[in-house]
Amino acid sequence: MVVRITALALAAAGALVAPAAPAHAAVKPVCLAAVNHPCAWQRTTSAGVAGGGLIDADDPARPTVLRVEVRIQRAWGSPWETVVAVTEVQSGSIRLSTPAVTTPYRTITCATGGPADDLASQTTTCTF
Predict the structure, then answer these.
(1) What are the backbone dihedrals phi and psi of residue 44, each rounded to the nearest 5 degrees, phi first?
(2) pTM, to two decimals
(3) In this model, does residue 94 exceed pLDDT 70?
(4) Which residue among 44, 58, 65, 75 is least packed, with the fewest CB closer than 10 Å?
(5) What whole-number distance in Å separates Cα of residue 38 and Cα of residue 1?
(6) For residues 104-118, b (16+ Cβ closer than 10 Å) or e, as one string?
């Protein structure tokens, strides 16, 4: 019960702070320094929602893959649908951004990446 109350208090505090920032403000990515683990972010501009992703490769000579997707959810509980995506494979670290999309639906941005030659080592990170 204490955990639920704490969670509600934190959510309420976040709701009070969130409206203070303008909706069109550029969001700087806050990525943890985890090698071969992608981070994702999204930002809202006058052109719509744009997604971004970054992956730092452990070996600059090894091919790395990064795919960044902006997904929408048409109704609560329905599956997420990809509306725009970009993918790049290159040696070393990668940073990508999607084109902005305008949508009335809830959005999420996901970044999937890792060593291009090892599918089992690739991971996905999503952010709202």
Answers:
(1) -110, 130
(2) 0.74
(3) yes
(4) 75
(5) 35
(6) eeebbbbbbbbbbee
